[in-house]
Design brief:
heterodimer, A: about 280 residues, mainly alpha, MetI-like fold, 2 domains, B: about 300 residues, two-stranded antiparallel ribbon, 2 strands, about 0% strand
């Protein structure tokens, strides 16, 4: 193991290390801790200049409740859910099939189709912006959640295909060959042989895509504009102009907006990291 | 291919057609929906953008063909050069996320009690949306309520207004952007360090290698796959920077924190009117820059595939 494990070093080194850990963590998360502190302060603390001290009264409960009762935040959160969940299902479903096709069959053009998905996944959003916005307007889907979902499914299919194809490549081929010898049709092989083996990949991708889409801001401002359809990343701007200079409220709002992917991460940590670091180890 | 026997019922002959050809047809069947979606929303729009960049178009009325004029105008546009210069700054400074992530990964690669929780907490800025990261740092820098100036005060420095000064604003945003990116690189390296061959490390230790020499000659070569991915995602992330600029400064002050991605958006969809053709031209330039990296990535992948 590198660096040398601290257990093998002197007691002084061990204790220094253990003391350094929390200090480093606090420094690392300092900007966030500041916002968390703001979010539980009452309004009066800001006017009286008590910025960094202990909150004069604990107003966390009140602030967070107001985020839900006095603003459109619940609506934005709901929009985010209705945009994110269908996208995850759609992109994962499509890429199970494309990944299967590219991972299992050898045919002419296989590698080029694969490269098309990989390359498309890396292009800058701006090169797609004008035509995609135009297309969405023409389909009558501008400023609808459906318009965003369709685009997200299509775009995420690039990354998901890369992921799924590499995962399927690593599965034992003998299983598929054996099923073929038995005369099982290709469609049943996909459904009954390969899909069950893909469960870990499906879980990892779902958490990743959930986070990516929940956090999307660019397409939200390009394809939607109103409270009816905007997700929370775009809605937070409207929220902040409603509570201009009320830092306790803006802080609470931001924390709420950021929370769902954070919870997803802590609940599904193993899958999340497995997905993110795919390819980081040979 | 054998011709279907005439006396056979149609259903059987259809099934046998599928039977005989399913190995050839199945991949295309599975690919069709994915390719269709991807073509409509990603592949065609790339070509359409190239096309639109040759027109003057407000997004609604008639588009007028003007050839290369949008590109010619671009080369006389000071805002374009500001954006390009800032993109370069992003690209170079964002790469600091890689040594930064490696440093934290080395710091955390221990097995003391509670280390797993520490790793998660160090990582989680990456999970927060860039919009919120942008807001958090904008408040952190804010001269009236931010924690930055009191902190600088402890060292006798400051006060500064990072986001209000055209000379510092881009660096301020990049620093905010580095926060989640360092976390990302850290997790890549933690995973890589986990897979480092312990026998090689012990062997090198017996040979008297330690510290920097060990890191450079023994550990880093084994971390190459992690480094490769870290470089790819960091470069792409740097060129995609948009959310933070939009949230923290709107490209200001005086347009000094624009990058190509943001300037393109501003030109195409802002109160100054919709200049879709001009915006598309900026997008094409950004695309061509990105294409260099994409080509490099694909080339490497192709080499690996051939080796496999």
């Amino acid at each position: 193991m590198f660096p040398t494990p601290v257990e093998r070093r002197s007691a002084a080194v061990q204790n220094t290390y253990k003391a350094l850990l929390p200090i480093a963590l606090i420094m690392w998360l300092l900007p966030l801790l500041m916002v968390a502190l703001f979010s539980i302060k009452p309004d009066s603390d800001f006017t009286q200049g008590n910025l960094w001290g202990w909150p004069s009264t604990f107003a966390g409960f009140e602030n967070y409740t107001r985020v839900f009762t006095d603003s459109a935040m619940p609506r934005y959160l709901l929009n985010s859910v209705f945009i994110t969940v269908p996208t995850v299902i759609g992109a994962v479903a499509l890429s199970c099939m494309t990944g299967f096709a590219l991972g299992v069959y050898r045919f002419r053009g296989n590698i080029w189709i694969f490269f098309m998905f990989v390359a498309g996944n890396f292009v800058p959003f701006q090169i797609l912006m004008v035509p995609v916005r135009d297309l969405t307007v023409n389909m009558g889907l501008y400023d609808t959640r459906m318009g965003l979902v369709l685009f997200h499914i299509a775009f995420q299919t690039g990354f998901c295909t890369l992921f799924m194809r590499n995962f399927i490549r690593a599965l034992p081929r003998e299983l598929i060959e054996a099923a073929r010898v038995e005369g099982v049709s290709e469609i049943r092989i996909f459904w009954y042989v390969v899909l069950p083996l893909m469960r870990p990949a499906i879980a990892a991708l779902s958490v990743l895509i959930f986070t990516f889409i929940w956090n999307d801001y660019f397409w939200a401002v390009v394809l939607t504009q109103g409270v009816e359809s905007q997700p929370v990343t775009a809605g937070i701007t409207a929220f902040n102009s409603q509570f201009r200079a009320a830092y306790h409220m803006m802080s609470a709002g931001s924390i709420i907006a950021a929370l769902p992917p954070v919870m997803m991460f802590f609940l599904m940590q193993k899958h999340f990291i497995a997905g993110l670091t795919l390819g980081a180890v040979k | 291919m054998a011709a279907p026997v005439l006396s056979e019922p149609a259903a059987t002959s259809q099934r046998s057609f599928w039977r005989r050809n399913q190995m050839r047809l199945a991949p295309w069947l599975f690919l069709a929906p994915g390719i269709a979606f991807f073509a409509v929303y990603v592949i065609f729009p790339i070509f359409q953008s190239f096309h639109i960049s040759l027109y003057r178009w407000d997004g609604l009325g008639e588009a007028r063909f003007i050839g290369m004029q949008n590109y010619e105008r671009l080369f006389d546009d000071p805002a374009f050069y500001t954006s390009l210069k800032n993109n370069l700054r992003w690209l170079l400074l964002y790469l600091l996320a890689i040594p930064g992530g490696l440093f934290i990964a080395l710091f955390l690669n221990q097995q003391v009690r509670g280390i797993r929780l520490y790793k998660s907490l160090f990582f989680f800025p990456f999970v927060i949306s860039q919009v919120v990261v942008g807001l958090v740092f904008a408040w952190f820098y804010n001269p009236s309520i931010g924690l930055l100036n009191p902190l600088l005060g402890l060292f006798g420095a400051g006060p500064v207004n990072i986001l209000g000064n055209p000379n510092t604003v881009t660096y301020g945003i990049i620093a905010a952007g580095l926060w989640p990116q360092v976390a990302y690189c850290m997790i890549l390296y933690l995973t890589g360090l986990n897979a480092v061959d312990p026998e090689q490390v012990e062997a090198a230790r017996l040979d008297g290698a330690k510290g920097w020499r060990m890191l450079w000659y023994v550990i880093l070569p084994q971390l190459r796959p992690a480094t490769f991915i870290a470089v790819v995602v960091t470069v792409i992330g740097a060129l995609r920077s948009f959310d933070m600029i939009s949230v923290m400064t709107n490209g200001g002050p005086f347009g000094s924190s624009r990058v190509l991605a943001y300037y393109m958006f501003e030109v195409s969809l802002s109160e100054y009117g919709f200049r879709m053709g001009y915006g598309a031209a900026i997008a094409v330039i950004l695309f061509l820059i990105m294409m260099v990296y994409i080509a490099f990535f694909l080339w490497r992948m192709w080499r690996e595939e051939r080796g496999a």
